[in-house]
């Protein structure tokens, strides 16, 4: 099978790594990819938001499967263009991807499907915003209606900050605050059926102790020993399958991964948000533990051949990933600093480094090229062993001004 992965981050490096392990994959390509994917696949410079360019590349490479990593190409209609050209694609079309592209649309789908979620109001004026904030009270939850790379949500006790964020966004969804721990669950969907992956937990705040601003995610781990038994079955029955059924009813069948961000509240499971793609950095730990060959699984989704009773197999133990971020991330990440120590980090038993925001400079040095620069993954017989491996590898990496959380999976 010839596979093309669209994207350039840590999630795409994790996808490429998992696909490379699948014996059915005979050729692996990434577009645009990064220096990490270049070690295991052929990279192709491309504007992945340009549907025509993506179709032309996929045709030229004679790909059997295109896997779309990030949300922006999905919302831009790249999956639609690939399917119209007769190519097999893992990722929802533009209409179904609105479940991430518009928070208001996601709320509409959840209401129609009877999915448990936070009470919310869609607001477009200062008056509507202030009324909704007063109705729900603090902590205030204000979400940009559109795509914001995981950073469009503000949760604050400061009314002025909530109003200011809403004003900066324009159209927002204001919600009641959901208490309780958060869980990420990915489900692979073929438009009709869905199969769950294992739950993971993501750490959104920039600094230890969940302090600082929201980020795209500073680390993750799986499994979750504290999660209630039966959680996955409950979420599949009350969240995933009703949502997939509602989208199918609207003649926008959902093909791809449906990511449910959940809060385990005192009143039961509630959906915080949906994403139309694999979460980053949870994918890095979930795929680390997946033993079922990935390419055949994604192709079954794309072709509509996923059986609801499709049983996945998992490696025993645990996986932890720690994000190494650039200086001043998430506000104004510094780029262009040299990265060293990766060979030493990759030499740590049960640990490896995924590239998230890296590039080669004019002198051939590996440098930082984004906010989240590296994902360091550790695995082990249990959470403590996986965590120890990840942090031992992190300690060997040198990047001026970089920072990472020291309490991931702690």
From TrEMBL:
Family matches, as HAMAP family: GARS (MF_00138)
Gene: purD
Name of the protein in question: Phosphoribosylamine--glycine ligase
Family indicated by similarity: Belongs to the GARS family.
GO biological process assignments: 'de novo' IMP biosynthetic process; purine nucleobase biosynthetic process
Enzyme class, broadest EC rank: ligase
Listed cofactors: Mn(2+); Mg(2+)
Pathway note: Purine metabolism; IMP biosynthesis via de novo pathway; N(1)-(5-phospho-D-ribosyl)glycinamide from 5-phospho-alpha-D-ribose 1-diphosphate: step 2/2
GO molecular function, one term: metal ion binding
Chain ranges of the ATP-grasp domain: 107-303
């Amino acid at each position: 099978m010839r596979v093309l992965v669209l994207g350039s981050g840590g999630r795409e490096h994790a996808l490429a790594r998992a696909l490379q392990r699948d014996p059915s994959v005979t050729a692996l390509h990434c577009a645009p990819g990064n220096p990490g994917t270049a070690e295991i696949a052929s990279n192709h410079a491309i504007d992945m938001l340009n549907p025509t360019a993506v179709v032309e590349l996929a045709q030229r490479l004679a790909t059997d499967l295109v896997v779309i990593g990030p949300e922006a190409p999905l919302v831009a209609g790249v999956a639609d263009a690939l399917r119209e050209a007769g190519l097999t694609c893992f990722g929802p079309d533009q209409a179904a991807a609105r479940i991430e592209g518009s928070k208001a649309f996601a709320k509409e789908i959840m209401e129609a499907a009877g999915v448990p979620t936070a009470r919310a109001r869609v607001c477009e004026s200062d008056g509507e915003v202030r009324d909704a904030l007063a109705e729900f009270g603090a902590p205030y939850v204000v979400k940009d209606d559109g795509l914001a790379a995981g950073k469009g949500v503000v949760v604050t006790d400061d009314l002025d900050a909530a109003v200011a964020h809403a004003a900066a966004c324009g159209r927002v969804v204001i919600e009641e605050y959901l208490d309780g721990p958060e869980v990420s669950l990915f489900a692979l969907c073929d438009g009709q059926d869905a199969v769950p992956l294992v739950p993971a937990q993501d750490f959104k705040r920039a600094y230890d102790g969940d302090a600082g601003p929201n980020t795209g995610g500073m680390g993750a781990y799986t499994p979750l020993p504290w999660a209630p038994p039966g959680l996955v079955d409950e979420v599949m029955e009350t969240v995933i399958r009703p949502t997939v059924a509602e989208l199918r009813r609207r003649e926008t069948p959902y093909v791809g991964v449906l990511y449910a961000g959940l809060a385990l509240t005192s009143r039961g499971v509630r959906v915080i948000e949906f994403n139309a793609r694999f979460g980053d950095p949870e994918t890095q730990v979930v795929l680390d533990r997946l033993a079922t060959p990935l390419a055949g699984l994604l192709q079954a989704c794309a072709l509509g051949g996923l059986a609801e009773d499709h049983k996945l197999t998992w490696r025993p133990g645990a996986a932890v990933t720690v994000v190494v971020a650039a200086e001043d991330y998430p506000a104004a990440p510094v780029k262009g600093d040299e990265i060293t120590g990766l060979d030493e980090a990759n030499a740590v038993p049960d640990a490896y480094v995924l590239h998230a925001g890296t590039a080669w400079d004019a002198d051939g040095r590996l440098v930082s090229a984004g906010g989240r620069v590296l994902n360091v993954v550790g695995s082990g017989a249990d959470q403590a062993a996986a965590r120890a491996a990840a942090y031992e590898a992190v300690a060997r990496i040198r990047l001026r001004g970089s920072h990472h959380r020291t309490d991931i999976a702690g």
